[in-house]
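**Protein of interest**
===
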Amino acid sequence: MSELAELERRIVRCRRCPRLVEWREKVAREKRAAFRDEEYWGRPVPGFGDPDAGVYVLGLAPAAHGGNRTGRVFTGDRSGDWLFGSLHRTGFANQPTSRTRDDGLRLHGAFVGAAVRCAPPANKPLPEERDNCLPYAEREFELIGPRVIVCLGKFAWDVACGLIGLRPRPRFGHGAEHAPDEGPVLLGTYHPSQQNTFTGKLTEPMMDAVFARARELAYPNSAP
Protein backbone atom coordinates (compact mmCIF):
# COMPACT_ATOMS: atom_id res chain seq x y z
CA MET A 1 0.00 0.00 0.00
CA SER A 2 1.28 3.47 -0.89
CA GLU A 3 1.92 6.00 1.83
CA LEU A 4 -0.87 8.23 0.50
CA ALA A 5 -3.29 5.29 0.59
CA GLU A 6 -2.28 4.54 4.17
CA LEU A 7 -2.83 8.20 5.07
CA GLU A 8 -6.29 8.03 3.48
CA ARG A 9 -7.13 5.03 5.69
CA ARG A 10 -6.03 6.96 8.79
CA ILE A 11 -8.10 9.99 7.83
CA VAL A 12 -11.28 8.00 7.16
CA ARG A 13 -11.06 6.27 10.57
CA CYS A 14 -10.48 9.48 12.55
CA ARG A 15 -12.83 10.29 15.46
CA ARG A 16 -10.72 12.85 17.33
CA CYS A 17 -13.30 15.67 17.38
CA PRO A 18 -16.56 14.68 19.15
CA ARG A 19 -18.51 17.69 17.87
CA LEU A 20 -17.57 16.97 14.26
CA VAL A 21 -18.23 13.24 14.58
CA GLU A 22 -21.70 13.93 15.98
CA TRP A 23 -22.52 16.47 13.27
CA ARG A 24 -21.25 14.54 10.24
CA GLU A 25 -23.12 11.40 11.36
CA LYS A 26 -26.31 13.31 12.16
CA VAL A 27 -26.30 14.85 8.68
CA ALA A 28 -25.67 11.42 7.15
CA ARG A 29 -28.67 9.96 8.98
CA GLU A 30 -31.14 12.79 8.43
CA LYS A 31 -30.01 13.69 4.89
CA ARG A 32 -31.31 16.43 2.63
CA ALA A 33 -34.62 15.70 0.94
CA ALA A 34 -33.06 15.83 -2.53
CA PHE A 35 -30.65 13.05 -1.54
CA ARG A 36 -32.94 10.98 0.69
CA ASP A 37 -32.40 7.81 -1.36
CA GLU A 38 -28.60 8.07 -1.26
CA GLU A 39 -26.27 6.53 1.30
CA TYR A 40 -24.16 9.33 2.77
CA TRP A 41 -20.44 8.88 3.35
CA GLY A 42 -20.65 10.47 6.81
CA ARG A 43 -16.93 10.13 7.61
CA PRO A 44 -13.79 12.28 7.28
CA VAL A 45 -12.98 13.03 3.64
CA PRO A 46 -9.45 12.32 2.34
CA GLY A 47 -7.63 14.31 -0.32
CA PHE A 48 -7.96 13.52 -4.00
CA GLY A 49 -5.86 13.90 -7.13
CA ASP A 50 -2.46 13.36 -8.70
CA PRO A 51 0.07 11.98 -6.17
CA ASP A 52 2.86 13.66 -8.14
CA ALA A 53 1.08 17.01 -8.28
CA GLY A 54 2.99 20.25 -8.60
CA VAL A 55 -0.08 22.13 -7.33
CA TYR A 56 -1.72 21.43 -3.97
CA VAL A 57 -5.19 22.97 -3.62
CA LEU A 58 -6.25 23.54 -0.01
CA GLY A 59 -9.87 24.16 0.93
CA LEU A 60 -11.63 24.72 4.23
CA ALA A 61 -13.72 21.59 4.94
CA PRO A 62 -16.17 19.21 3.24
CA ALA A 63 -19.71 20.46 2.71
CA ALA A 64 -22.38 18.71 4.78
CA HIS A 65 -24.29 17.57 1.68
CA GLY A 66 -21.29 17.63 -0.68
CA GLY A 67 -18.13 15.80 0.37
CA ASN A 68 -19.81 14.48 3.51
CA ARG A 69 -22.38 12.86 1.21
CA THR A 70 -20.18 11.68 -1.66
CA GLY A 71 -16.92 10.87 0.14
CA ARG A 72 -14.77 12.96 -2.19
CA VAL A 73 -13.61 16.46 -1.41
CA PHE A 74 -15.48 19.25 -3.27
CA THR A 75 -17.72 16.68 -4.94
CA GLY A 76 -21.48 17.02 -5.24
CA ASP A 77 -21.95 20.72 -4.47
CA ARG A 78 -21.79 24.08 -6.25
CA SER A 79 -18.39 24.96 -4.82
CA GLY A 80 -17.04 21.82 -6.44
CA ASP A 81 -18.65 22.78 -9.75
CA TRP A 82 -16.70 26.04 -9.62
CA LEU A 83 -13.43 24.49 -8.51
CA PHE A 84 -13.33 21.59 -10.95
CA GLY A 85 -14.69 23.74 -13.75
CA SER A 86 -11.73 26.06 -13.28
CA LEU A 87 -9.28 23.17 -12.99
CA HIS A 88 -10.66 21.78 -16.25
CA ARG A 89 -10.36 25.10 -18.09
CA THR A 90 -6.75 25.49 -16.94
CA GLY A 91 -5.68 21.97 -17.86
CA PHE A 92 -5.64 20.23 -14.47
CA ALA A 93 -8.81 18.11 -14.79
CA ASN A 94 -10.17 15.85 -17.52
CA GLN A 95 -13.75 17.05 -17.02
CA PRO A 96 -15.46 20.14 -15.58
CA THR A 97 -17.86 18.45 -13.16
CA SER A 98 -17.59 16.33 -10.02
CA ARG A 99 -20.79 14.54 -9.07
CA THR A 100 -19.80 11.24 -7.44
CA ARG A 101 -16.64 9.38 -6.43
CA ASP A 102 -16.89 7.16 -9.51
CA ASP A 103 -17.77 9.76 -12.15
CA GLY A 104 -14.47 9.42 -14.01
CA LEU A 105 -12.91 12.68 -12.85
CA ARG A 106 -9.11 12.64 -12.99
CA LEU A 107 -6.69 15.37 -11.97
CA HIS A 108 -3.34 15.90 -13.68
CA GLY A 109 -0.75 17.94 -11.84
CA ALA A 110 -3.12 18.91 -9.02
CA PHE A 111 -4.16 17.42 -5.68
CA VAL A 112 -7.08 18.76 -3.64
CA GLY A 113 -7.26 18.57 0.15
CA ALA A 114 -8.93 20.39 3.02
CA ALA A 115 -7.70 22.00 6.21
CA VAL A 116 -10.45 20.18 8.16
CA ARG A 117 -11.60 16.75 6.96
CA CYS A 118 -15.09 16.59 8.52
CA ALA A 119 -18.07 18.79 7.70
CA PRO A 120 -18.38 21.32 10.56
CA PRO A 121 -21.64 22.87 11.79
CA ALA A 122 -22.28 26.18 10.00
CA ASN A 123 -19.07 25.47 8.04
CA LYS A 124 -17.08 26.87 10.98
CA PRO A 125 -14.54 24.53 12.57
CA LEU A 126 -13.22 25.36 16.02
CA PRO A 127 -9.52 26.13 16.50
CA GLU A 128 -8.90 22.83 18.27
CA GLU A 129 -10.63 20.95 15.43
CA ARG A 130 -8.41 22.69 12.92
CA ASP A 131 -5.36 21.75 14.98
CA ASN A 132 -6.45 18.13 15.29
CA CYS A 133 -6.68 17.90 11.50
CA LEU A 134 -3.47 19.74 10.71
CA PRO A 135 -1.23 16.61 10.75
CA TYR A 136 -3.20 15.16 7.83
CA ALA A 137 -2.53 18.16 5.58
CA GLU A 138 1.07 18.22 6.79
CA ARG A 139 1.55 14.60 5.78
CA GLU A 140 -0.13 15.09 2.39
CA PHE A 141 2.09 18.08 1.78
CA GLU A 142 5.18 16.09 2.78
CA LEU A 143 4.33 13.14 0.53
CA ILE A 144 3.34 15.20 -2.53
CA GLY A 145 5.99 17.93 -2.31
CA PRO A 146 4.14 20.53 -4.41
CA ARG A 147 5.72 23.61 -5.93
CA VAL A 148 2.56 25.71 -5.46
CA ILE A 149 -0.21 25.80 -2.85
CA VAL A 150 -3.49 27.37 -3.99
CA CYS A 151 -5.45 28.46 -0.92
CA LEU A 152 -9.24 28.66 -1.24
CA GLY A 153 -10.03 31.43 1.22
CA LYS A 154 -8.31 33.00 4.22
CA PHE A 155 -8.82 29.99 6.50
CA ALA A 156 -6.86 27.79 4.10
CA TRP A 157 -4.28 30.55 3.59
CA ASP A 158 -3.59 30.74 7.32
CA VAL A 159 -3.33 26.94 7.58
CA ALA A 160 -0.94 26.83 4.60
CA CYS A 161 1.25 29.49 6.22
CA GLY A 162 1.46 27.23 9.25
CA LEU A 163 2.31 24.21 7.10
CA ILE A 164 5.39 25.88 5.66
CA GLY A 165 6.29 27.86 8.78
CA LEU A 166 5.69 31.41 7.54
CA ARG A 167 6.04 34.01 10.31
CA PRO A 168 4.62 36.60 10.09
CA ARG A 169 1.86 35.49 7.75
CA PRO A 170 1.68 37.37 4.47
CA ARG A 171 -1.62 39.12 3.88
CA PHE A 172 -4.40 37.14 2.19
CA GLY A 173 -6.36 38.46 -0.76
CA HIS A 174 -7.65 37.22 -4.07
CA GLY A 175 -4.66 36.85 -6.35
CA ALA A 176 -2.23 37.18 -3.44
CA GLU A 177 1.12 35.55 -4.17
CA HIS A 178 3.95 34.87 -1.76
CA ALA A 179 7.20 33.14 -2.69
CA PRO A 180 9.21 32.21 0.42
CA ASP A 181 12.97 31.77 0.24
CA GLU A 182 12.40 28.02 0.49
CA GLY A 183 9.32 25.95 -0.18
CA PRO A 184 6.26 26.32 -2.39
CA VAL A 185 4.71 29.52 -3.66
CA LEU A 186 1.41 30.45 -2.00
CA LEU A 187 -1.45 31.68 -4.18
CA GLY A 188 -4.72 32.97 -2.76
CA THR A 189 -8.19 32.96 -4.23
CA TYR A 190 -11.56 33.74 -2.72
CA HIS A 191 -13.36 30.56 -1.75
CA PRO A 192 -15.88 29.40 -4.40
CA SER A 193 -18.72 29.49 -1.88
CA GLN A 194 -22.21 30.43 -3.03
CA GLN A 195 -21.90 33.62 -0.99
CA ASN A 196 -18.92 34.66 -3.11
CA THR A 197 -20.05 33.34 -6.50
CA PHE A 198 -23.68 34.48 -6.31
CA THR A 199 -22.66 38.02 -5.38
CA GLY A 200 -19.95 38.27 -8.05
CA LYS A 201 -17.18 38.67 -5.50
CA LEU A 202 -15.60 35.69 -7.27
CA THR A 203 -16.03 35.20 -11.02
CA GLU A 204 -14.88 32.37 -13.27
CA PRO A 205 -12.20 34.52 -14.95
CA MET A 206 -10.87 35.53 -11.52
CA MET A 207 -10.52 31.93 -10.42
CA ASP A 208 -9.12 30.79 -13.75
CA ALA A 209 -6.42 33.48 -13.52
CA VAL A 210 -5.21 32.04 -10.21
CA PHE A 211 -5.01 28.48 -11.55
CA ALA A 212 -3.38 29.66 -14.77
CA ARG A 213 -0.75 31.35 -12.59
CA ALA A 214 -0.36 28.13 -10.58
CA ARG A 215 0.28 26.23 -13.80
CA GLU A 216 2.79 28.85 -14.94
CA LEU A 217 4.71 28.51 -11.68
CA ALA A 218 4.52 24.74 -11.29
CA TYR A 219 4.82 23.75 -14.95
CA PRO A 220 6.48 26.66 -16.78
CA ASN A 221 6.97 24.67 -19.97
CA SER A 222 3.40 23.43 -20.31
CA ALA A 223 0.18 24.95 -21.58
CA PRO A 224 -3.43 24.08 -20.77
The chain has a mean pLDDT of 95. The beta strands are 48-49, 55-59, 110-114, 148-152, 177-178, 185-189. DSSP finds eight helices and six strands in the chain. The two ends are 32 Å apart (CA to CA).
